Amino acid sequence: MLLYMYLVIIAWLYVAVMMAAAEATHSQGSVLGAIVTFLIYGLVPMAIVIYIMNAPSRRTARRKAEALEAEALKTNKPEDQ
Questions:
Q1: Quick check: is 44 in a domain?
Q2: Is position 5 within any domain?
């Protein structure tokens, strides 16, 4: 499933690059307009999608780190005298 999501990301970035190229080569277009088009239609939405897609792995990594920390605190806890 994850592979298909990366395929969608690559395809969307391709579309955004083509839109930016059309903007840059149009007689009334500009390179600045092409850059803004690519940022607004390409990079910003894909950054949000990738951030959301990686949420489960970030959650898993955080839980593992918390479990390791709790285990380390439990094993290194000094005994009461």
A1: yes
A2: no
Tell me if 43 is assigned to some domain: yes
Give pLDDT, residue 78: 66
29: three-class secondary structure by DSSP = coil
Runs of H (alpha helix) within 1-81: 2-25, 31-38, 44-53, 55-75
Residue with tokens 């850059």: 35
**Total-model pTM:** 0.68
How confident is the model over 33-58, as pLDDT tens digits?
A: 999 999 999 999 999 988 888 888 88
Domain that holds residue 41: 13-69
